[in-house]
What does this fold into?
Amino acid sequence: MKLNNLFLILVLFFSTFLFSCKERDKEKGVSTEIPNLIGQEFIIEQLIPKDQKVVSKEKIDIDGDNEQETVITTSDADATTSYEYWFKNGKLLYQFSYPWGSINKKWLINIDNDKQYEIIRAIGYEDGVDYAIYDIQNGKQIPLLYFNPALQDTRYPGKTFWGYPGDIKELVIDADKEILVSLNNNFERDGDYTMPKDQRELPFIYFKGSTAQPEMIIKEIHAPQYKSLDEIRALVNIAGSTPGQAVFNANASFNNDQIKYRIEVLKNNSDKDAYDQKHFNLPVKIYKGNTLWKSNDHLVFDKRNTCISEGFSTVAVKNNYFTIEHQDCSDYNVLVSAYITFKVIGNEIFLHKYGESYFDKSNHERSIPMKVWTEKNFGKIKFEDVTAEFFQKLK
It folds into this structure.
């Protein structure tokens, strides 16, 4: 039984139980008001599989709305796999799994141009910890960058320490969400750790904190500088973050300001299938001159398992408008041609309209009216905040 179905059953059971108790106790003149939160926590706990051991239960702001939500981490009986269950308003939002480690720390922070928080994880053992930044894409966590942790401690000005998981408090970023990083270091690291094939180095990412081992100073490290996550990925040669990995390029002249703009749709290297890498779940980057201006990793639809479609096809540009064209499907027979149009206004890009046309492969004579949604339907939404999930809910 799926977790969300189980959730509904528990809600009905718990609500019925409370109602019957309230009615019975009303007759006795006894108050049985139970806070909503207690009911939610009871239901959440019932959703965790019984064959898993609860390792931790945290209250975390998972999306920047200043609300503390529940995140439960469990492990299997053999301590080989860790599971995380993220709940929002009592409902299961995400479920992640990854190899178990005796050391398991995470920090949430928004370091790109969308509203979705990224996850920074430190997972491993005493003889080796992997440090990585993950993005959440279509309910999955995707590794964006593996790195070495550098620590700044205000008690020791001018010194850089190795950032052990227990010493780290927060990432060092500036007002533009750029990360303090040191690159091109010839650093030999001890212990067991992951060195991704698509990274030429593990950059030093800086954190604030309090070192418990002040003798662990990192020496001969290049001076750090602030750079965006996309820039760091490109500089360490992560596939999919360089112009050579673009599956589509389009030049544009927005705002009549004589500045050259470039729209890039990048290859999705997290997919194993060569065709899917170029057509589904693709990052979109927009450059103003040679500087990354806008970015969205959640815009191009993911591949459906229930039907076959061609995915991303092209980007059409006209004046201050550009349209991302994509083929989706609603069932095995009906193909959906999706048109996502944006408008550039000054220094911002807004969703202008979304349209769908339909073709029935089983009945070519069938005429299905096109559907179009505009700002009147969805309001003013910035380019970086639009997701494929948003369009699914719009329907």
